[in-house]
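Raw record, unedited: Hemocyanin subunit L2
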Amino acid sequence: MRDLKDHRLLEQKHWFSLFNPRQRQEALMLFDVFIHCKDWDTFVSNAAYFRQRMNEGEFVYALYVAVIHSPLAEHVVLPPLYEVTPHLFTNSEVIEAAYRAKQTQTPGKFQSSFTGTKKNPEQRVAYFGEDIGMNTHHVTWHMEFPFWWQDSYSHHLDRKGENFFWVHHQLTVRFDAERLSNYLDPVGELHWDKPIVQGFAPHTTYKYGGQFPSRPDNVDFEDVDGVARIRDLLIVESRIRDAIAHGYIVDRAGNRIDIMNERGINVLGDIIESSMYSPNVQYYGALHNTAHIVLGRQADPHGKYALPPGVLEHFETATRDPSFFRLHKYMDNIFKEHKDSLPPYTVEDLKFNEVSVDKVSIDGQLETFFEDFEYSLINAVDDTQEIADVAISTYVPRLNHKDFSFNIDISNNGGEALATIRIFAWPHRDNNGIEYTFDEGRWNAIELDKFWVKRKYFTSVPGTNHIVRKSSESAVTVPDVPSFETLFEKTKEALGGADSGLTEFESATGIPNRFLLPKGNEQGLEFDLVVAVTDGAADAALDGLHENTEFNHYGAHGKYPDNRPHGYPLDRKVPDERVFEDLPNFGHIQVKVFNHGEHIHH
Ligand SMILES: [Cu+2]
């Protein structure tokens, strides 16, 4: 309130970036107000009050993070960010058309197309980096696990650093799989002393503050005034890699933290991002966050042209720039260095009593296609009392897949047991048609599902248990966030006494369910599909997981349900693949993912 009265706060109708320290501080002051509200009325009243007075971007950010984390708002379903701040999700051409439609009072439905032209091979996979569901997943994840989070706000975020590694690792391997069906090589890693091969022209505009900056091809990195020197980043990288080679991290007080164990990845994630959980920011820096700003500013590193922040400086827009994936490949390889330094799992570690996977198959064809998706742009245009609203929307192609099920036959000749079932897939060949080894493949494994079974399927009756798991049940995905319009309707119905039917939308943190499968091709893109059935009693960090067929896999609430490291049992190097091939509780088949060029038009 003091800052507000002294007019020290960022004005309204100005861009907001979380990576701007003062703007972040202001957004967090507001978050601090929300998270400390003791009842619902106080929360809502504060929100209404500051909505009128604070910068809009700061307000939206603070409100979203508070709703995600406050126990008062546990069951609140937030509207999709692409309808709240459409400027960060579609391109300037569509936004201009939307303004014209409003001005001329003519309802309009405009097609959003992906950035660039066919002359740019990277455009073939723009449907991934520019997918509004993917962007929502990414920004929501960073709201569930904010790097600035302190436990004093309300609670501890379990395995935050490891989750940071895993969510970005999955984006990395998924993007590489998408590239294969588009005849592109895997992403090469970005490096500070090499040119940034790919340029990027975002065709995105701020609602207030001009165009997002562009970058031509093959730019050499330059120091960014007031942010970082390139050599500082190299030094920080080398300290982190030293820690990995030594097998320990040195905290602020000079104590060693052992990382040669399954929790080491969590500490490494905290120091690489870095988050407030980092044991020594002074020494290990903030490689990821600094890299985002440095990369985002390469169009104007010395602030000569007063350009606003780049796409890399917003979690909503970061994945639009292909260099995002190069940057994350670079960091993913640092994490790999650590994972590869841990002792491989043995048969003894992995086997599960008398349990064996007899057969794995797929019901239905694995087939992807494109469809058009429409969403409202009403919030893209200025809202004035004098001019009436008209219906303005955009439609954009997006990847989807046909429904299918996993069929898994398991025999259990031991007693009744709780079992964890983990399903992964990785591309069988690289872009040159060369088969991946098991060890190469497992690092590229896409996590498709993870769930627990007992009784119903997994009885003590000797013989076979038949498990059918539908693609729609996957614990790693979430459905589309309901639109503003749907939320208004459902709220009205609920006020009339009906069930709102919105429970499944309480979290938007997972991968969009449409993205469960990577795009296939005409001949069928070959994948290795594996199913690992492991000891649920040893794996489960919570009770009753088998009764809860779905838990939010990426969610930050409470304790993470799985005791095992993310990616288990494929997270460590496999020098001898016979360990897996001979493991009875491990199933391995080959499948093909098709795409016959089908496009369901709007
Ligand atoms: Cu991220």
